[in-house]
Every structure is written in C-alpha cells, then in structure tokens.
Design brief:
The complex is a heterodimer of chains A (207) and B (129). With 207 residues, chain A is mostly helical. Chain A is built from nine helices and no strands. Chain B is built from five helices and four strands. Chain B has a four-stranded parallel beta sheet, with helices on both faces. In chain B, helix 2 crosses helix 3 and helix 4 runs antiparallel to helix 5. Classes of the chains: A mainly alpha (207), B alpha/beta (129).
Chain lengths: 207, 129
C-alpha cells in the first residue's frame, strides 16, 4: 500500500506532468521554453524511484529534492530541489505533520529558495506565490482558523501572487533579458509553485 | 595543480570550451567539462558537477567556470554537497574566456587564488583594443 506522503507527492507530480505543455508555453513567452518539460521529467523520475510504502516524510521529501536537483536541468532543479530538501530537513524522522509543522516547512523552504536564487519578493519568481501563501497560511493558523480554511487562504494568496507576477518586470533568471517585455506574462515558476500548494491543499482536505 | 570544471547548460558548449582550453593547456589533466544533462538534453546537473569537482581536485583546489543562472545555482549546490573537503571557488567570469585564462594559469602551477583572479580578469579584458 502506498503511504500518505507518497500519495501527496504523487498528486503533485501528476499535476505538474499534466500541466507540462501549459508551463512550457508560459516559459516560451518569457524564458527558455523548458519549465514544464523539465519539471515533468523530474517528477516522472521522482514517481518512478520513490518508495511507495515508506511513511518517513523527511526521507521521501529529501529523495524528491535530490531527484529534482539532478533530473530537472533548468533553474527549477536547484530551486525545487532545495525547497524539497529543506522541507525534508524540517520533517526528518516524522510520520505525520501538524499545522504548526506547515509553518516551519514554509519558513525553511522560503529561506532555502532565497539563498539559492538570491531573489526577494517582487522579482517575478516563484517567491511571489510562495511568500504570500506562507503569510496567509501562518496568519490563518495563528488566528485560530481551521486547517482547511488556512489551506484555502494559502492557495488564494498564491493564486493572487501569480496574477501579481503579470504586472511586474522580471529581474531574475532568463526572463530578465526581456526587461519590460516580460510585463503581461505570468511567471512559470510561481505557477508551478501554486499548483504544488493546491495539490497539498486538496490532498490534506481529502485525508 | 588547480583543477578546472566547465559547467554549461549545453554539453556541446562545455566540450567545445574544453577543447579550446586544452589547446593552451594540453598537459593539464585536471580540466573537466560538466555540461548538459545525463541524457544529453539542455540543463545543468548538480550531481554531475559534484562528481567533476571531485575528479578535478588534486588537493590544490578547483576553479568552476559556469554559464547562465542555473549553471551557477547547480554549481553552488554541487559544492555544498561535496563529501570531501575540497577548496572550490566559482569564478565570476565569462565562461569561455575565463576557462581559457584559468587553464593557462593553472597549467603554470599557480594557486587557486591566482587561477580565479586570472579568470575574473577576463571579464574586463577588451577584445578590440
């Protein structure tokens, strides 16, 4: 039987693979037209090698990160690789997670991505979805909201973050070569990050 | 001798720069191209870079020359993942000119600092004057 953490990562992987063409199309407009292809290649490998029956959350997240790091190829390899490996560190030895763990995972993931990509919010990157999502989630949990409500708030903030990336100039990555011509296009990394968060929400709600 | 690792998204670019560097440094066996993905597609692979750094090191350290954005990111991750204690630095330099300067300097028996400095000087060298 597949463990819950495997099923969650599988849900994310399948969504990324389903959206391969769309993510690549977004990247064609402002980048090097490989985001969807790269991420799908990475997750196909993740789903092939991850042990289905392990409930060691930290271990599976770490393996996911290492695989993405080596198989994705573009900037999303080191960035998503770092994100999953950082999440794995927070979850080391755990077989279940609390809403508070979610806050700690967000903090570690954001710190890792910022260090790796040397980016801050407002540069048309995945951080423009992840940081608002983290803030909305933590505020909801701290304010006593239920976990499903906090996850809804998280996804809404991420989706708004993706919309926000349409309005700003890219200053990081390949899209920065386009300068003002990057305005009007949504960031592919913010989009795939939002899919990831939506899958986590849907998975947790369905548990 | 200081090792040199050439990191590009394209294995053709990495191999091509390696070929040009080797014209100037044919006795240097510690220059390694680490371009592209395992299956030959465009991209950078931190694991492949890590292995290249380990193979390039003779104890005198390794200079890494990388191309665009994620080439740097993957190189940084590769360095963090090293299991042995190797003195590695990424040169803030154009990959082709930097690699050739680094190769020539390394072959002369220079230190890692000197190799990195030579590579980084390539950033400001004018081609037309």
């Amino acid at each position: 039987m597949a463990s819950k953490i495997y099923e969650c990562i599988e849900k994310i992987g399948n969504r990324i693979i389903e959206e391969k063409e769309f993510l690549t199309e977004l990247d064609r407009e402002i980048g090097d037209a490989d985001h969807g292809i790269n991420m799908a290649r990475g997750f196909s490998e993740v789903l092939a090698i991850l042990p289905k029956d392990s409930d060691n959350i930290g271990e599976l997240l770490k393996k996911t990160g290492m695989t993405l790091l080596s198989k994705v190829g573009g900037a999303s390899g080191p960035l998503y690789g770092t994100a999953y490996m950082q999440a794995g560190k927070v979850c080391a030895g755990k077989t279940s997670l609390t809403p508070e763990d979610g806050k700690a995972i967000f903090e570690a993931v954001i710190a890792g991505i910022q260090k790796r990509g040397k980016a801050v919010k407002g540069e048309k990157t995945m951080l423009d979805a992840i940081i608002p999502a983290s803030e909305a989630y933590s505020a909801a949990i701290d304010g006593g909201a239920s976990l499903p409500d906090a996850l809804d708030a998280m996804c809404k903030a991420a989706e708004e973050g993706v919309e926000f990336t349409k309005t700003i100039i890219a200053t990081k990555g390949r899209a920065s070569y386009l300068g003002e011509r990057s305005i009007g296009h949504q960031d592919p990394g913010a989009t795939s990050a939002t899919y990831t968060l939506e899958c986590i929400r849907d998975f947790v709600k369905g548990m | 001798m200081v090792g040199i690792v050439i990191v590009s998204h394209s294995w053709k670019v990495a191999e091509g720069i390696y070929d040009l560097a080797m014209q100037m440094a044919s006795e240097n066996e510690h220059i390694i191209a680490a371009g592209g993905m395992e299956d030959g597609s465009i991209g950078t692979d931190a694991m492949k870079i890590q292995e290249a750094i380990e193979n390039a090191d003779t104890g005198d350290g390794v200079a890494v020359l990388a191309d665009l954005g994620s080439g740097i990111m993957s190189a940084e991750m590769a360095i963090e993942m090293l299991e042995s204690d190797i003195d590695v630095r990424i040169a803030d330099a154009p990959i082709l000119e930097g690699a050739i300067s680094a190769a020539v300097t390394s072959t002369s028996g220079a230190s890692l600092d000197e190799v990195i400095e030579a590579a980084e000087e390539a950033r400001t060298a004018s081609k037309l004057s």
